[in-house]
Design a protein that fits this description.
Number of helices: 29
GO molecular function: ABC-type transporter activity; endopeptidase activity
Pfam families: ABC2_membrane_2, Rce1-like
Helix content: 55-70%
InterPro entries: Rce1/LyrA-like_dom
Largest sheet: 4 strands, mixed
Keywords: Membrane, Transmembrane, Transmembrane helix
Shape: globular
Radius of gyration: 35 Å
GO biological process, one term: CAAX-box protein maturation
Number of domains: 3
Strand order of the largest sheet: 4-1-5-6
Distance between the termini: 37 Å
């Protein structure tokens, strides 16, 4: 008989089932995994050396080398040759014996001057040739040539041959230094000459210099130091946070694969989410420790080295930054380190070994480093637009806090917090999904051969593209568009030139690769491009949705232009383009600017690429990735943001209808209205005044018309939401599961 007082121990499978039924990860399990991973990492001498010992030793050694090198980088005297001294006037004096006049060159000891008479230099070569050889061969750093015509006052202004020439070598740093010094001397000499001539003519010298200008920096010393460190220190800490996150992530995933301990951990009672959160906390800890220790060591060493070298502000020193404002940097380091750690953990899960994992570091750095470099650009400040950029917004927020701009930072804090939180959540979900997919953790061990791979592509073609083929198609399109834009040197000024500018990328760089890959890699061109007849009411409703959403789309574009203003140079370059579109025949404009992009872009992004990314019932991946690729393909930042938002809507319509045709109609309607707004607003049609009003930026929709259109668009969207997903989208997955040669991921799906 069973004893009711006896509770048999649960197996690992039962514990996992109980944890899943609880609906949330257990903190005790997360802490246990975190403690285990921290203990294992701290036992590794390489990890301890990289995180603790290396920063303590590296920066003092680098600082010592800088102090030694600084002895060779002090300013050295430069040699200057003046040819034609006999042509110089006596008053004011430029050269006296072997130096420039004392009142012209305060640092006369830094200039060694050698003088020659013009006739003494003339040989078989001209004076200019000999002087050029002297500078080129390093005999002199620069040469000042005073031609004979300079001695004649009537030739100095009218005759080009009478001008003083300064010869230097831009390939030589020493020659460039000499050029700057001599240019200052000549400018001072010319100013003195002008004053002497005006005084001799009886002109009051105050007429040419009515006032003096003096600039005064009112910032305290500590504020100046904070301004310097607020730009430098966050950059250093974020770079080290990225680096410090990746190597522990490789060891925690790829390293455990090599040691054979990852399978044991996955078979434990811990949920995958608990394993991911425990490892993520470990990687985040090491990321923060690496960033803090490296930044602290660099800070102490650089402050000492700069003070010894004499680099800095007014007192020639750069002191330590104020500690209280720098605490904001530590607060911001927590979410950013967690973000980098989640990305590193997800990327490391794809590696089969530690060696392979290190190859993924550079691509990850190349993607994230521009977000860290952007705040370092001159003129970049915290605005509504920059606060929406991941990592960059947090960087600028910290810089504003360090510089004492608390009101500005508080105003943009909610946006930065939401953007950072969303990015962190997405990165953590990606890492969790990587651990849920055993094909990512343990697949891909077979050796890859090009011949077998090509044979597999042709022999095992299916009705739709695979996710890898879809991503490859998107990458090919973006690369082709990038080089196509580089080939355009100037904007066309005729409509035929505009037609060529539009048709070449649309047909040659978007549609052609899509059709080629769909023909070669799939068995059905129609199914791979998702060209199927949907439920017939979706077609007119797609047109109605496009027309009703256009006022909201125009408003969104206006907001984007306010947050990210178009430069004057770009606006001037686009002006001939807009003028040609306005004056060209309307049907030609609609065909070129609306129909062609709608067909080509939808077949590529919501057709071939969408169908491949939707494999395995990954609807969210298909909608989001195609929207991002669609936005990037537009090139201009303002258009890319608006196109990404529109791409999300087009992807949703493609998902609900199971066809590319409604998206083509919606895309066509939106583009046609965009190129026709000016014509409709300026027409004699009576309803134009009810729809549009004229502003300095062009025609805009009336507020009442905007509200009415939003209401109609809401009804249309609700109809699409209630529409059942087209069953044809599951055909590709079904066919793939019946195949004998499939990817590891699909083989696992078929076995479950």
């Amino acid at each position: 008989m069973s004893n009711p007082l006896y509770d048999p121990p649960q197996t690992a499978k039962q514990k996992r089932r109980a944890a899943k039924l609880a609906g949330r990860p257990r903190l005790s399990a997360i802490w246990l995994i975190y403690a285990r991973e921290m203990r294992d990492q701290l036992r590794d001498r390489r990890t301890l050396f990289t995180i603790a010992v290396l920063p303590i030793l590296l920066y003092p050694i680098v600082g010592t080398l800088l102090l030694q090198i600084a002895q060779f980088t002090q300013q050295h005297p430069t040699s200057v040759c003046v040819v034609g001294t006999e042509h110089l006037p006596d008053v004011p004096s430029l050269v006296s014996e072997d130096a420039f006049a004392a009142d012209l060159a305060p640092d006369a000891q830094q200039l060694r001057v050698v003088t020659y008479r013009w006739k003494d230099v003339i040989t078989d070569h001209t004076v200019a040739e000999r002087a050029s050889d002297w500078v080129r061969n390093g005999l002199f750093d620069c040469v000042v040539m005073v031609p004979p015509a300079f001695a004649e006052p009537k030739h100095r202004l009218s005759d080009q041959d009478a001008s003083i020439r300064l010869l230097y070598n831009v390939a030589s740093d020493q020659s460039m230094v000499a050029r700057d010094r001599v240019t200052g001397v000549l400018n001072t000499w010319r100013g003195g000459w002008i004053r002497d001539r005006l005084a001799s003519s009886g002109v009051d010298l105050d007429a040419i210099e009515p006032f003096r200008l003096s600039d005064v920096d009112i910032a305290p010393e500590r504020t100046r130091e904070a301004a310097l460190w607020s730009k430098l220190l966050p950059f250093i800490m974020l770079v080290w946070a990225m680096t410090g996150a990746f190597y522990p992530a490789i060891d925690l995933v790829a390293g455990e694969k090599e040691r054979g301990t990852l399978e044991t951990l996955l078979c434990s009672p811990a949920l995958r989410s608990e394993i991911v959160m425990g490892k993520l906390a470990t990687v985040t800890t090491f990321s923060m420790m690496t960033a803090i220790l490296n930044a602290s060591s660099m800070l102490v060493t650089s402050s000492f080295v700069f003070r010894q070298i004499g680099i800095g502000s007014v007192d020639n020193t750069i002191g330590a930054p104020p500690m209280a404002p720098m605490l904001w940097l530590l607060v911001a380091l927590v979410p950013l380190s967690a973000l980098f750690s989640a990305l590193a953990l997800a990327v490391a899960a794809m590696a089969r070994s530690s060696k392979e994992g290190q190859y993924y570091l550079m691509p990850l750095m190349m993607v994230t480093l521009p977000l860290v470099m952007l705040p370092m650009l001159p003129g970049t400040s915290l605005t509504a637009g920059t606060s929406l950029i991941p990592v960059t917004g947090m960087f600028l927020l910290v810089r504003a806090l360090v510089e004492g701009q608390y009101v500005l930072a508080l105003w943009h804090l909610p946006i930065v917090a939401v953007v950072t939180g969303v990015c962190l959540w997405m990165a953590a979900k990606w890492a969790h999904k990587q651990f849920e997919d055993e094909s990512v953790l343990f697949g891909g061990n077979d050796q890859w051969e090009l011949r077998h791979w090509v044979r597999h592509l042709w022999r095992d073609r299916q009705t739709a593209a695979t996710p890898g083929q879809a991503i490859a198609c998107g990458a090919i399109i973006l690369v082709a568009l990038f080089f196509g834009k580089l080939a355009v040197t100037e904007m066309p000024t005729t409509f035929s030139g505009i037609a060529q500018l539009v048709l070449m990328p649309q047909i040659g760089m978007i549609l052609a690769p899509t059709l080629l890959m769909a023909t070669v890699l799939t068995t059905s061109l129609r199914k791979s491009l998702r060209i199927r007849m949907p439920y017939w009411p979706t077609l007119p409703l797609a047109v109605l949705l496009g027309a009703s959403l256009h006022p909201l789309y125009v408003t969104l574009a206006s907001w984007i232009n306010q947050m990210y203003p178009v430069s004057e140079q770009a606006a001037a370059a686009m002006k001939p383009f807009a003028e040609q579109i306005t004056t060209a025949p309307w049907l030609s404009v609609v065909f070129l600017m609306a129909l062609v992009p709608a067909v080509c872009e939808e077949l590529a992004f919501r057709g071939f690429i969408f169908g491949g990314l939707q494999r395995g019932k990954n609807a969210v991946r298909a909608v989001v990735v195609t929207a991002i690729l669609f936005g990037i393909s537009h090139g201009v930042l303002q258009q890319s943001i608006a196109a990404t938002v529109m791409g999300l809507l087009l992807g949703f319509i493609a998902l609900r209808t199971g066809s590319v045709l409604p998206g083509i109609l919606l895309h066509l309607t939106n583009n046609a209205l965009s190129v026709s707004m000016g014509r409709i607003a300026n027409s004699q049609w009576g309803g134009a005044s009810m729809m549009f009003h004229t502003t300095a930026e062009g025609p805009q929709y009336q507020p009442l018309w905007l509200v009415a259109c939003v209401a109609i668009a809401g009804i249309c969207l609700w109809w699409f939401i209630t529409l059942n997903t087209h069953p044809a989208d599951a055909e590709a997955d079904h066919i793939e599961l019946d195949n004998t040669i499939v990817d590891p991921a699909t083989r696992l799906m078929a076995s479950t």
